[in-house]
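[agent] plan:
  1. take the single chain provided in the ticket
  2. run structure prediction with default settings
  3. attach structure tokens to the ticket
  4. add a short note for the reviewer (M.T.)
[agent] executing step 1
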Amino acid sequence: MIEKVDHIGIAVKSLEKTLPFYTDVLKLSLLGVEEVESQKVKVAFLKVGDTKIELLEPLSKESPIAGFIAKRGEGIHHVALGVSSIEERIAEMKQQGIRMIDEQPRLGAGGAQIAFMHPKSTTGVLFELCEKKGLGK
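[agent] step 2 finished; step 3 output follows
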């Protein structure tokens, strides 16, 4: 069902100000930066062994990440779990009584299919299901 922790999402106010800590101090490799217009965020992925850190910078005040930062400050936003057959995983979660934010997979960063579980159903943690077909997982 769950294959791995794909990435840990961290909300930041500014990639420009935050990236040097990860690249210069922690010496992590920057895999790339992209904008996800549907979520109004700019993301940077950094490699940490077999997993990644995803830094999320809001592009507007309407971004869900902007709301998160305003309410809770910068910090860990979500844990993404790598899965196969995301539609089946969503159905399984719903059968287990998990409330889904995304009833159907949607396009996320890096071309992945994603779906979030509501943290009220997951003991307060925002989990993301993440399927990367043909993307080298």
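[agent] step 4 note for reviewer: Residues 15-25 form the longest helix (11 residues).
[agent] ticket updated
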